[in-house]
Amino acid sequence: MEDNELIDRFFERDEEVLKDTEKQYGKYCRTLAFRILGDDMDSEEIFNEVLLKAWNAIPPLRPLRFRLYLAKLTRNLAFSKYRSEKALKRGGSEVTVALDELAECIPSGSTPEEHMHLSILKDSISAFVRTLPDTDRKLFVRRYFETESIKEIASASGLSENNVKVKLHRIREGLKKHLEKEGMLS
């Protein structure tokens, strides 16, 4: 089923669209949530919340890319749950490792001024990612958006794990330079 059909059915308030959305995107969203949370039950709970949020937001919202919209909802909810559950723990999960990798090149802090600049930072990172060659962009998204492990990325891309690590390191270095040039890092 096409995304536009699904969205039209949300606008019509057809409750069966939730089942069809689950069929089309349930596995994908649960996998994203699982990579962040590492728990099947939590992933299921997150996906149910995603469906509820989508139901409440559509209409009036009409996402241009429904899959990306659901992925963003999933990630936001999963990271929120992750932060609340793991705030006092420092584990070695893929999420922690991926976030630590990005911490090298992304400014951090919790002052109101820094929070105000998060939108600008997001736009700057998006602009950088759009300049990457297709292969590098896919590696970046798989690692830092979909939080896949190096092993999963290597397997899916046909590259060695070492090659993936080197490419991701170079991408992060490029991102760091880009953010410095944009005045986001000093």
Description:
It is a single chain. By secondary structure, the protein is mainly α. The protein has ten helices and no strands. α1 packs across α2. The protein is globular, with a radius of gyration of 18 Å.
Distance between the termini: 48 Å
Total strands: the figure is 0
Number of helices: 10
Mean pLDDT: 84
Instruction: Give the % helix.
Output: over 70%
Radius of gyration: 18 Å
For the biggest sheet, the summary is: none
Class of secondary structure makeup: mainly alpha
What string gives the helices and strands in order? HHHHHHHHHH
Strand content: under 5%
Shape: globular
Low-pLDDT parts are none
Name the features.
mainly alpha, 186 residues
Task: Please specify the SSE layout and strand pairing.
Blueprint: H1 3-11, H2 16-37, H3 40-57, H4 66-86, H5 94-103, H6 112-116, H7 118-131, H8 134-144, H9 150-157, H10 161-181
Helix pairs in contact: 1-2, 2-3, 2-4, 3-4, 8-10, 9-10
Concise synopsis of the structure shown:
The chain is 75% helix and 0% strand.
